[in-house]
Amino acid sequence: MGKDVIVALDFDSKEKTLAFLDRFTEEKPFVKIGMELFYAEGPSIVREIRARGHKIFLDLKLHDIPNTVKKAMAALSALDVDIVNLHAAGTAAMMTAALEGLTRPDGTRPLLIAVTQLTSTDQESMERELLIHVPMEKVVLHYAENAAAAGLDGVVCSPMEAGVVHERCGKDFLTVTPGVRFADGDAGDQKRVTTPAKAKELGSDYIVVGRPITQAEDPVAAYRRCREEFVG
Ligand SMILES: O=c1ccn([C@@H]2O[C@H](COP(=O)(O)O)[C@@H](O)[C@H]2O)c(=O)[nH]1
Known about the structure:
Strand content: 15-25%
CATH topology: TIM Barrel
Bound molecules: ligand LLZGTKA7
Structural class: alpha/beta
Radius of gyration: 17 Å
CATH superfamily: Aldolase class I
Number of strands: 8
CATH architecture: Alpha-Beta Barrel
Number of domains: 1
Order of helices and strands: EHEHHEHEHEHHEHEHEHH
Shape: globular
Distance between the termini: 16 Å
Largest sheet: 8 strands, parallel, barrel
Strand order of the largest sheet: 1-2-3-4-5-6-7-8
């Protein structure tokens, strides 16, 4: 897998999602299916988008006791997706169980990555609401190291932490980074934000971009602008 832009398909119906994808006549974007679309449409939307030839990151962020996550991952392993994820805060035991559940009888599995600290969190909210009084970068690195030790393939973090995660966990340990906005864009609920160009400079492997593309007047042009800045 090389550097790429992953488009977050945060829509509430199959119709809106497919109408959005139909606008892309020349390229086949790597897409992310998150809770909104998956809960609205169920696994069939994953199959339908896969059948159209898209790579898929299934972003369901599992977080529960190890046995429950193992069983849920076993169900997800039946879907033909490229990446699935969970919260690193669920502990090493949960991540290990998730890997076991996700691995198919023939030994294959999608890549499994762990969310460190949501990009909608900053130092202030992490300390005030989560009572974590450690610098953000240190928290992200700690979660990344736990994920690497458990055998996961990478993490979700902000582009701001991508460089140090690679330094600590290796260049092949994936950094999948939401929290991306164009220089003239509105951050909205995102707190740890960079531009696509800055994410490239900081070493992100993948940027995840939703609203700057899905809500743009011309989504295809916005996608191309993102790719141009991030991939070149
Ligand atoms: O830490 C995280 C983890 C996941 N996300 C998801 O990425 C997209 C970002 O969408 P934007 O519209 O570009 O803000 C969204 O689906 C989130 O659920 C994240 O933002 N941060």
